[in-house]
């Protein structure tokens, strides 16, 4: 039977390229004239579609918890429910994030506000998140006196309205080094301050106890009101929420962020009430869950680059124009403009938080992903993250299935069935989702579908997220609400004169080919007749080269987890791999994500 060749070019690729270019050129044009950021309290709340509330009580000895999602099928089918694999959440981190003042022009002024307190908001929320976690575990916070806490300083923070305890708290946040800590534990939002060049004026009491999360939130709300900072509180929370993700990018040592320099040009006014809780604090339990789930917040960020209806063989046609538009922005380190470019997406508040933290490993991953389809542990699409936020990241997030007709079924539906019915297979590969969200192209004959799922090809599966189960224990949570968040903002393109000739041919064929290979390598054990050998070789039976997959795959896909896992199979990998060092390394990376290579 003749091979089936995927198409990477042609009129459809040209059309997709033009659509992508239109959207992202328009987004850039709109960003250059925008005066506001999409990071209000309501924008942040829009991320909480079905996110579970963080546990109220956690044993103090726990440094890791986990949970899993349960889904229900509303179709009349024997497959009535399914569970996704457990996902881990780390409650501590050994190294605090190093924080210093940015020297760039990014975010020197926030919208129309004359005062810029973004750094204070980020530092304050980092403490509030940490204090809330400590309270849930029965742990204690304490102030620390650092050796470098004396001046000289060129900037002062006048808090005439504040109490002594209030000033003490703010001083601890901006002191050199770590001004506070959770006793016996490293906080996931821990910070070590370097060169903020700021002094809190007035009496302090270093012997006093640190405030509770609620008290600290009140202090933050009072300062926000006193200096008329507006939605800088929401922006600071978005930045603080990104700290665990920054830390996860470092195998050893501390990640580093750069926050905008403080600029308080107008004197503070006195708050009319002592308790001034910011609206975001009422939802702190939900923001904690999202922030601590790097495997959820990462792919939610990366969802801005994915587009439904684009098949894997045209991924390069979609991503090529995005790379062309964003490359000058990233090369110029214009992260303020980058945050505005993403304003039309529902993930915009998270990108504002990333941008506020300055150049980082996260922003450095954007162009390699767009131009070479490099995949990183934190960018892997997550079905749970899509359900939590209401932001799809993959064709697997289309919860409806079209039944087989005319003797054929779409490959996308077959791929979904393989994941949904992963327990029917001898191997566990289909338990894990694909490294990219692009759907497989075309349809396949029903007779070529493997027996494990053939009983379901005539079904109309409709999956609905039911609830999240926390472990340890078995408490369940249906999530923040049973509605999706706000939709993407429409991007106006009609008034733009967009000429593709300015860019030339932007289709990245290598990206399209790699995305297609990754898609079909995921199920290389089940390639249909006439298709084996076209994209990837069909795997037949077990051999030593497959031994790595039998060892299991780390749950968190984190760098440290992958390193530890690889060390347990190093001896066997040496025996089974005879390729070059470069090829062997790539094999290990792919197999750690459930992919397999056939030479």
Explain this structure:
With 599 residues, this protein is an alpha+beta fold. It has a domain of 196 residues. Helices cover 36% and strands 11% of the residues. The strands form 6 sheets. Strands 1, 2, 3, 15 and 16 form a 5-stranded antiparallel β-sheet that branches. A 3-stranded parallel β-sheet has the order 9-4-11. Helix 9 crosses helix 15. The C terminus is likely disordered.
Low-confidence stretches: 483-487, 489-501, 539-599
The global form is globular
What is the makeup of the main sheet?
A: 5 strands, antiparallel
Count of alpha and pi helical runs: 22
Strand content: 5-15%
Helix/sheet category: alpha+beta
Mean pLDDT: 85
Please give the share of residues in helix.
Answer: 25-40%
In angstroms, what is the radius of gyration?
Answer: 25 Å
- Count all strands and give the number: 16
**Cα distance spanning the termini:** 22 Å
Region (Disordered): 572-599
Biased composition (Basic and acidic residues): 578-590
Essential attributes:
five-stranded antiparallel β-sheet; globular; 599 residues; single chain; disordered C terminus; three-stranded parallel β-sheet; alpha+beta
């Amino acid at each position: 039977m003749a091979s089936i060749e995927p198409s990477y070019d042609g009129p459809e690729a040209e059309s997709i390229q033009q659509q992508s270019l239109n959207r992202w050129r328009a987004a850039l044009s709109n960003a250059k004239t925008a005066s506001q950021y999409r990071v209000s309290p309501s924008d942040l709340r829009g991320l909480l579609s079905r996110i579970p509330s963080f546990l109220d009580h956690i044993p103090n000895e726990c440094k890791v918890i986990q949970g899993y999602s349960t889904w229900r099928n509303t179709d009349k089918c024997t497959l009535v429910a399914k569970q996704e694999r457990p996902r881990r959440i780390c409650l501590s981190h050994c190294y605090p994030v190093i924080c210093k003042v940015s020297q760039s022009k990014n975010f020197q002024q926030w919208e129309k506000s004359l005062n810029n307190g973004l750094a204070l908001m980020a530092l304050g929320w980092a403490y509030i998140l940490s204090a809330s976690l400590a309270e849930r575990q029965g742990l204690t916070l304490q102030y620390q006196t650092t050796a470098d806490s004396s001046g000289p300083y060129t900037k002062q923070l006048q808090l005439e309205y504040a109490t002594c305890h209030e000033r003490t708290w703010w001083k601890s946040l901006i002191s050199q080094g770590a001004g506070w800590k959770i006793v016996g534990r490293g906080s996931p939002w821990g910070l070590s301050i370097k060169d903020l060049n700021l002094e809190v004026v007035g009496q302090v009491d270093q012997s006093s106890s640190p405030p509770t999360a609620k008290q600290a939130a009140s202090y933050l709300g009072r300062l926000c009101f006193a200096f008329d900072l507006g939605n800088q509180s929401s922006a600071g929370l978005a930045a603080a929420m990104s700290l665990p993700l920054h830390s996860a990018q470092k195998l050893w040592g501390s990640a580093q962020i750069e926050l905008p320099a403080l600029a308080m040009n107008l004197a503070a006014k006195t708050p009319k009430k002592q308790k001034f809780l910011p609206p975001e604090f009422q939802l702190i339990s939900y923001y904690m869950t999202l922030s601590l789930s790097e495997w959820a917040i990462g792919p939610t960020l990366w969802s801005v680059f994915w587009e439904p209806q684009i098949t894997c063989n045209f991924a390069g046609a979609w991503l090529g124009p995005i790379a062309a538009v964003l490359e000058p922005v990233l090369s110029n380190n214009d992260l303020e403009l980058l945050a505005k470019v993403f304003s039309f997406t529902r993930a915009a508040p998270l990108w504002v938080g990333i941008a506020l933290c300055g150049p980082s490993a996260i922003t450095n991953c954007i162009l390699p992903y767009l131009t070479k389809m490099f995949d990183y542990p934190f960018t892997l699409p997550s079905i749970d993250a899509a359900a939590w936020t209401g932001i799809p990241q993959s064709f697997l997030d289309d919860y409806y299935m079209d039944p087989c007709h005319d003797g054929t079924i779409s490959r996308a539906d077959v791929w979904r069935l393989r994941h949904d019915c992963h327990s029917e297979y001898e191997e566990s590969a289909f338990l894990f989702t694909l490294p990219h969200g692009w759907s497989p192209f075309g349809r396949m004959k029903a007779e070529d579908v493997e027996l494990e799922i053939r009983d379901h090809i005539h079904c109309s599966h409709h999956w609905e997220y039911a609830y999240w189960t926390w472990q340890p224990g078995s408490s369940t949570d249906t999530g923040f609400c049973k509605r999706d968040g706000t939709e993407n903002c429409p991007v106006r393109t009609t008034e733009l004169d967009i000429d593709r000739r300015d860019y030339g041919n932007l289709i990245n064929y290598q990206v399209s080919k790699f995305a297609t290979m990754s898609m079909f390598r995921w199920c290389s054990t089940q390639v249909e007749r006439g298709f084996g050998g076209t994209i990837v070789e069909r795997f037949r039976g077990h051999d030593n080269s497959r031994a790595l997959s039998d060892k299991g795959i780390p749950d968190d896909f984190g760098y440290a987890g992958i390193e530890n896992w690889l060390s347990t199979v190093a001896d066997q990998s040496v025996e089974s791999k005879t390729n070059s060092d470069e090829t062997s390394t790539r094999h290990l990376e792919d197999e750690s994500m459930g992919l397999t290579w056939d030479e």
